[in-house]
Amino acid sequence: MLNYILHNDHANPRIAVSQAKPDDAPAVMALLVGAARWLQSKGSAQWSALLSGDDHHDVVGHIAAGELFLFKDGDALAGIVLLMQTPKQWDLDLWGPDGHEPNVYLHRLAINREHAGQGLGTDIVRWAETGISFPGKRTMRLDCIASNPKLNDFYRGLGYAYKGTSPSGFCLYEKPLARD
Q: Is 46 helix (H, G, I), strand (E, B) or coil?
């Protein structure tokens, strides 16, 4: 189970944060499929495997590990994010085999389209940086597809330092965390 200290159970005054439970998996998958459809409508193949039912990112496993967080507006699922203290093979492939101990990995930030354009993505990332902390972790790492300049600008605008682009076409970013 994820070892963390919760500092704030809200991402903003309207959006409550909680750790996902197994019975949240269908709603999480629906949100991710909706995000994949929206990306497809914008000409992106990002997350397209979800459209054929392929969840190779293992939502259920991340929920069981305590790594998936829900952002709710009342009863409505407004967004999600994965926060991982242990890198998966994906992270090892992108960042190399060493130096992972002090890092938290942010993945699968997704917003329900009904809540898009309201700054929720920023609120979720800021919450991940300050609303929760992980003992011994000093840096937040993330990656995003290089072919999406708007997404890359989003992370740079939040103070994430560009650390390079992987041969597979993903930009790597990291940012020091204020808390342990």
A: coil
Whole-structure pTM value = 0.95
Tell the residue number behind the tokens 């914008």, with chain if given.
Answer: 42
Return the structure tokens found at 20. Answer: 């996902």
The DSSP bridge pattern shows strands 139-145 and 103-111 to be parallel
| pLDDT in single tens digits along all 180 residues of the chain | 678 999 999 999 999 999 999 999 999 999 999 999 998 998 888 888 899 888 888 999 999 999 999 999 999 999 999 999 999 999 999 999 999 999 999 999 999 999 999 999 999 999 999 999 999 999 999 999 999 999 999 999 999 999 999 999 999 999 999 854
